């Protein structure tokens, strides 16, 4: 039984740990899911960036895509003079010259080395006449492009299996080496000068916008950046200023446009925003479910605890009641037996037996009344007969009836009563039970010299009945329990005092069903104050009957010792 209590706590702790553990796991999974979504969205955008660079590369190759079909032997043989260049090669060049991407086209034989000696003669394509013409007037970038390609091809040509090879000189030129793959020698170099304006404004810029849209829609901002000059050539979001700190990813162009690259910043796209919104929603639902579960757990646990302690107190109560019913009954039956025998004739003893029987039957009645009160509340249809009541008048009648009780317990009674309080609508038998219980308690829990003060006063909305004693008082931590059924403060004095923990629960139930409230304030060793407040009804205040003995006492405001 002792361990049972710990097992319950252990199970509560395990249950709570399981709920919290499950919640933490779920939160972790939700975040992992969201991160995956963000990651896959970012990966997709990285693939798009790479795809973009491949497409740019294809765009450069497109005009010269048929060069590989040429017979390189024949091309070589035709390169005796600019006007004899192989017809098929001229056709391809003619078509290429119409592409705005290239501003000039030059042809050079491997023997000619303009990179080494700028100003050597090379052949320049003239679109107006559809032929090449020899020239020594060309830009430095032409000799640079040819020089780079010659150097690279010298190293490559022996191991190279194809008959064309494209080599870029940054964003300035593209040179195609025409190769005789059987003899592994370069036949000619075709240099195409790149029109950078066209490239950026007519091709790469629009394509960037087409592929990546605006930053808000797609969750990515891309800058086409010349990193050697730190200059933005084009961007998908002109309103966002480029800053290296914002760059999340850099994509270079493979083998071409070496001085340029794509710089990207990943922002939240609608997919990620939706995933974040769903994450937040799920977290809220999870938190709600967790709180509900924990709440239900704790509620069930403490309700079970409460039920258990109520059951224990009920069992104790039954044992006590049985015992206490037996004691007066035993006294009554013993006295009754003696009297019925006729053996007792002495008038003093006769009186004593009579008093015993009377007192014990009173005790029995009080006990049975309490039980009936409790039983009444446990049945649903409790009848209530509320009538307009003037509390000071009611108290006066009540104290008359209670006089002998108060006298027998040596109570010093002090009354402080405002006669002008308005009427209240209450069941008078309930009111009597309330007073009975409060006064009985004040008497029970006071040492010798029992002092009780009863006050009646009112505000605009309430009439208050206050019962104060100078008894043992109630420790603060028990104030919230004393109105529970079967609750008794566990201390030495209560242990010596007879009771079942029902009086105050009856007071509370009766007060509430009459629309009132009850409260307590108490200091151990100094006494307790129980306040009952009833709402006022609209009925007028009755005229004072100044002849009442209680009113006389009230006026004097002197503590009264009920003899
Ligand atoms: P009981 O039959 O034990 O008096 P009650 O419901 O009337 O049951 O009171 C519950 C507990 O509250 C009592 O056991 C007692 O400890 C405490 N109590 C009630 N009234 C007073 C009072 N006037 N002074 C001190 N303690 C009180």
From the structure above, extract its key features.
563 residues, Beta-Lactamase, 13 helices, six-stranded antiparallel β-sheet, alpha+beta, single chain
Description of the molecule:
The structure is a single chain. The protein has 563 residues and is α+β, with helices and mostly antiparallel strands. Among the domains are: 66-194, Beta-Lactamase; 198-266, no CATH class; 385-557, Histidine kinase-like ATPase, C-terminal domain (Heat Shock Protein 90, 2-Layer Sandwich). It contains 13 helices and 18 strands. The protein has helices at residues 2-61, 72-78, 87-97, 140-156, 196-212, 215-218, 270-341, 347-378, 391-408, 428-444, 492-496, 503-513, 549-556, and strands at 102-108, 122-126, 131-135, 164-169, 173-180, 185-194, 220-226, 231-235, 249-252, 260-266, 386-389, 411-417, 424-427, 450-458, 462-469, 517-523, 527-535, 560-561. It has a six-stranded antiparallel β-sheet with strand order 3-2-1-6-5-4, sandwiched between helices. It has a six-stranded mixed β-sheet with strand order 16-17-15-14-12-18. A four-stranded antiparallel β-sheet has the order 8-7-10-9. It is rod-shaped. The two termini are 52 Å apart. It binds adenosine-5'-diphosphate. Adenosine-5'-diphosphate binds next to helix 10 and helix 12.
């Amino acid at each position: 039984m002792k361990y049972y209590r710990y097992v319950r706590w252990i199970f509560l702790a395990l249950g709570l740990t399981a709920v919290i553990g499950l919640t933490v796991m779920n939160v972790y999974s939700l975040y992992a899911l969201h991160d995956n979504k963000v990651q896959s969205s970012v990966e997709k955008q990285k693939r798009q960036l790479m795809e973009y660079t491949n497409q740019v590369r294809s765009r450069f190759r497109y005009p010269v895509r048929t060069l590989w079909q040429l017979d390189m032997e024949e091309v070589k043989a035709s390169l005796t003079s600019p006007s004899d260049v192989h017809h098929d090669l001229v056709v391809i060049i003619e078509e290429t010259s119409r592409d705005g991407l290239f501003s000039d086209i030059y042809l050079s034989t491997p023997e000619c080395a303009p990179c080494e000696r700028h100003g050597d003669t090379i052949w320049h394509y003239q679109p107006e006449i559809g032929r090449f013409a020899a020239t020594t007037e060309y830009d430095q970038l032409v000799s640079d492009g040819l020089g780079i390609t010659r150097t690279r091809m010298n190293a490559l040509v022996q191991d190279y299996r194809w008959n064309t090879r494209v080599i870029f000189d940054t964003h300035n030129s593209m040179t195609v080496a025409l190769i005789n793959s059987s003899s592994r020698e370069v036949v000619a170099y075709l240099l195409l000068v790149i029109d950078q304006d066209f490239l950026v404004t007519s091709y790469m810029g629009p394509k960037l916008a087409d592929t990546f849209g605006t930053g808000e829609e797609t969750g990515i901002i891309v800058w086409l950046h010349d990193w050697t000059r730190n200059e933005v050539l084009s961007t998908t979001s002109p309103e966002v200023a480029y800053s290296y700190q914002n760059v999340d990813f850099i994509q270079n162009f493979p083998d071409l446009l070496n001085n340029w690259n794509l710089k990207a910043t990943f922002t939240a796209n609608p997919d990620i925003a939706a995933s974040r919104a769903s994450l937040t929603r799920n977290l809220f639902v999870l938190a709600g479910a967790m709180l509900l579960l924990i709440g239900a757990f704790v509620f069930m646990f403490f309700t079970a605890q409460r039920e258990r302690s109520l059951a224990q107190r009920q069992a104790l109560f039954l044992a006590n009641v049985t015992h206490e019913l037996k004691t007066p009954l035993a006294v009554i039956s013993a006295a009754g037996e003696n009297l019925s025998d006729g053996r007792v004739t002495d008038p003093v003893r006769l009186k004593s037996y009579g008093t015993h029987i009377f007192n014990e039957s009173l005790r029995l009645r009080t006990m049975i009344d309490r039980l009936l009160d409790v039983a009444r509340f446990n049945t649903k249809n409790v009848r209530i007969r509320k009538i307009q009541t003037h509390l000071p008048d009611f108290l006066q009648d009540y104290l008359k009836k209670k006089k002998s009780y108060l006298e027998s317990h040596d109570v010093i009674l002090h009354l402080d009563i405002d006669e002008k309080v308005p009427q209240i609508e209450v069941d008078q038998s309930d009111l009597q039970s309330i007073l009975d219980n409060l006064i009985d308690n004040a008497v029970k829990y006071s040492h010798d010299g029992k002092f009780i003060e009863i006050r009646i006063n009112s505000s605009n909305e309430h009439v208050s009945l206050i019962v104060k004693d100078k008894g043992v008082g109630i420790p603060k931590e028990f104030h919230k329990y004393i109105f529970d059924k079967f609750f008794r403060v566990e201390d030495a004095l209560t242990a010596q005092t007879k009771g079942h923990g029902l009086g105050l629960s009856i007071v509370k139930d009766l007060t509430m069903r009459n629309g009132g409230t009850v409260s307590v304030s108490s200091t151990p060793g100094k006494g307790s104050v129980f306040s009952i407040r009833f709402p006022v009804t609209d009925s007028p205040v009755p005229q004072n009957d100044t002849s009442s003995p209680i009113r006389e006492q009230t006026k004097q405001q002197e503590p009264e010792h009920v003899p």
